[in-house]
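Weekly modeling sync, notes
Attendees: S.R. (lead), two postdocs, one rotation student

Agenda item 3: backlog of single-chain predictions. S.R. asked that every request posted to the team notebook include the full sequence so nobody has to chase files. The rotation student volunteered to paste the first one in as an example of the format we agreed on. Action items at the bottom.

Example entry:
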Amino acid sequence: MTLEEKFTEFVRNLQSAEIVDELHLSQEQQQSKKPDFFFFERQFIGEMKSIKKDMEPKAQAILEEHKDRPEYPVFFGQWSSDKILQQLPDGESINKKMFDAITSALEDNVEKANRQIRETKKVFGISDSQGILIILNDFVEILSPDLIVRKIHQLLNKKSSSGDARYPHISVVWIVSEIHILKTELGKEFLPSIVFVNDYASSYQEANDYVKWLQRKWASFNNIPFIEGGLNLKNTWFSNRKEIDSPEISRSNMWRRQYSQVPYLRHFSKEQLLEYSQRLWFETLPAFIRGAHKEPSQETVFELMEKQTHLIEEINYRGIDFREFSPKLHEAFNRLQQEGKLNIQD
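Predicted structure, as returned to the notebook:
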């Protein structure tokens, strides 16, 4: 069942809620741009929009254009685009271009929702009703809730050529994602459910209170606890739920997950991390370079691989160009040869 289907079933089980497509409508109402739901004796008009178009390939293509630049960082594993762009002098403008590409479909969704709510007020004779835009995401991983909030904030602050609010009929936006897990600094994991009010709507307080009530009902419908609190998006991480819920997990992914729960290298200064990397490579290189030297046991190899995975995770977390670690790697290599612990065969 898709998130859209599940949400529709959720509404069907609510008191004082109506699914508009299941109502007996007049010819004028049938021909108008109808919303998806009515809530609470039609005091609230609900318009549901599902995010289905994945713009990640377009965003990646923008980033790929810069890979041959000398400032482009060298790294292993995955880096978020913001960490990469921090290394480029024009990273801010590139980031804006990528952001606009990733979120381009949202503007169309907001535009349509505002128009549908406006027409509904007129055709159904409910001019005092408040509009609720419900954004659902169970498909597009790159469009995390923090990016949606950022884009929605931009859109709702737009003005028309006359200086009026561009989207005044949307009182509240409710963002529900089932492809992301919200990760706090303390390692807690939750399904995100975010409410965003439109300060430029004629009224929004009643809709805001109602959606907060709906949030609790939605959590109960899904048999999950509801925890209310403010969200500091700068200190919040969103992960792909599919990866977390997957029954199959590779050894390296398990090590990465373990490190995210106990990031024991996080307190190291950059210099300390560089020194640690040299010590670790001194232990590790004999296990991965063929030669006449003594190689460690398989058990030791796995232990070293785990530590190397943790080191790379920390490097990636901090966004440090791997070229800064190259001297330490060469120093470890040279010392091993000088001490006769690395004997490379041709």
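Discussion: group reviewed the output briefly. The two ends are 58 Å apart (CA to CA).
Action items: rotation student to repeat for the remaining queue; S.R. to check formatting next week.
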